[in-house]
Inverse folding.
């Protein structure tokens, strides 16, 4: 193989690229002419390695956390890697099962800082030394061209929404969740201010700001002051307007007065406004995103904000449901499950790495209630509770925390032991003619009990997605 031809081809094509993505794509295309390999370029975008160009793979890892896989190791260290036998490398990402060798080198900016990686994988014998040298030269030229074009591509608004959606799911308190939602609304919309109005037991309420008073933007401060002064009835009218007519936005035209419902926002200095309903009409709210510039939001912006509002409400409703379930978990007159004290107090005594929480949900329970009535559903729960109790060891504790939801609190020496007990519970359920899904989580050092329970609950829904009648262990 004449590696000088590879370098010449890349050298000729790179200056013609007009964007960083195009430079990566042309680099991959040029290399693919000479290397019978799986080739990819991953660049760091918003804290993750994002694949911006690839060829020759049935599956591509679109985003990779820095430090994951050979590519993450190379990016984190800034040092290239030559792997003659990938089966012996614990960091290998299985893009193709037939891959045997890999060369990965960092893509560096002119100052020598990694901005991404160039990765080549082979499934046939190859002399790796020359390819390592060639890849390093190509990566250096690619890095220089990317920086000349302004650096790696910016995170798209859709990618921002995905990142914030993950943060919403991970939020463990309502305040944290509202903070994430407000910051996400600003970032996804590119508008300067965002406020969230939510109804509660006392009526419509303005949520706490996402930032401290010193960090809060001037427009958002004025809007918050105006809404606070407007009073509950005015906030209720804004929420009602959004739910009655759906999401709305300004067209950026001067001289047109705002609708009466949103006048307090306009009087505070907003010249652009997007209003998106949150949750159900009864008990939901509205997300207001504004700017003091006269702009023209487009339907795509509104669609992204509607997706954000939907995700935020789903997560908020789930947190509230978990809170209600925890309050109700101190006793259960139906099943008679034994209790040593309120469930919250019990998990507060959890030992990191030893106390496992097994979140249990009865598969298809709603169908039983709908088909045979609630009395039949109650009999099912009582019988299932007895079967689950019998399958647990002495000292393990079983709680009923909701309609068809249970949690077992057990002490184990390692996660695999908790999984085995969870599998024993699924067998016990099958013995009485039902199936259950189980999520398993062990507390981490410094983790709040509520966070452990939330991870167990997330693992439970992962088991549901696996097809039910399954056990899923939350990542350590």
């Amino acid at each position: 193989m004449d590696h000088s031809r590879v370098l010449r081809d890349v050298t000729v094509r790179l200056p013609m690229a007009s964007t960083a993505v195009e430079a990566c794509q042309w680099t991959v295309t040029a290399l693919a002419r000479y290397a019978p390999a799986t080739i990819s370029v991953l660049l760091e975008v918003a804290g993750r390695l994002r694949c911006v160009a690839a060829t020759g793979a049935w599956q591509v890892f679109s985003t990779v956390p820095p430090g994951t896989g050979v590519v993450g190791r190379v990016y984190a260290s800034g040092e290239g890697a030559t792997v003659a036998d990938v089966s012996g490398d614990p960091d290998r990402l299985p893009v193709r099962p037939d891959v045997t060798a890999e060369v990965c080198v960092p893509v560096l900016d002119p100052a020598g800082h990694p901005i991404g990686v160039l990765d080549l994988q082979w499934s046939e014998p190859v002399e790796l030394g020359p390819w390592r040298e060639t890849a390093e030269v190509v990566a250096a030229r690619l890095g220089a061209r990317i920086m000349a074009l302004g650096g790696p591509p910016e995170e798209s608004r859709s990618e921002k929404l995905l990142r914030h959606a993950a943060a919403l799911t991970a939020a463990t308190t309502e305040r944290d969740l509202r903070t994430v939602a407000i910051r996400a609304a600003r970032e996804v919309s590119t508008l300067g201010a965002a406020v969230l109005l939510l109804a509660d037991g006392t009526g419509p309420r303005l949520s706490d700001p996402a930032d401290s008073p010193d960090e809060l933007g001037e427009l958002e401060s004025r809007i918050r002051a105006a809404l606070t002064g407007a009073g509950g009835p005015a906030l209720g009218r804004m929420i009602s307007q959004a739910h009655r007519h759906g999401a709305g936005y300004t067209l950026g035209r001067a001289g047109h007065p705002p609708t009466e419902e949103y006048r307090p926002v306009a009087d505070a200095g907003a010249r652009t406004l997007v209003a998106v309903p949150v949750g159900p009409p009864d008990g939901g709210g509205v997300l207001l995103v504004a700017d003091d510039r006269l702009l023209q939001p487009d339907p795509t912006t509104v669609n992204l904000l509607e997706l954000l509002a939907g995700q935020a409400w789903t997560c908020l409703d789930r947190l509230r449901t978990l809170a209600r379930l925890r309050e109700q978990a101190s006793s259960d007159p139906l099943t008679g499950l034994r209790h040593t004290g309120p469930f919250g107090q019990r998990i507060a005594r959890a030992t990191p790495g030893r106390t496992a929480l097994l979140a249990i949900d009865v598969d298809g329970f709603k169908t039983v209630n709908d088909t045979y009535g609630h009395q039949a559903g109650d009999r099912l729960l009582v019988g299932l509770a007895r079967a689950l109790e019998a399958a647990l060891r002495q000292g393990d504790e079983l709680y009923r925390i909701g309609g068809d939801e249970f949690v077992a609190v057990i002490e184990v020496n390692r996660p695999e032991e908790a999984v085995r007990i969870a599998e024993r519970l699924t067998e016990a359920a099958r013995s009485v003619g039902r199936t259950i899904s189980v999520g398993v989580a062990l507390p981490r050092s410094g983790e709040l009990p509520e966070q452990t329970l939330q991870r167990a609950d997330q693992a439970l829904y992962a088991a549901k997605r696996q097809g039910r009648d399954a056990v899923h262990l939350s990542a350590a």
DSSP finds 15 helices and 16 strands in the chain. The first strand starts at residue 38 and ends at 45. The two ends are 46 Å apart (CA to CA).
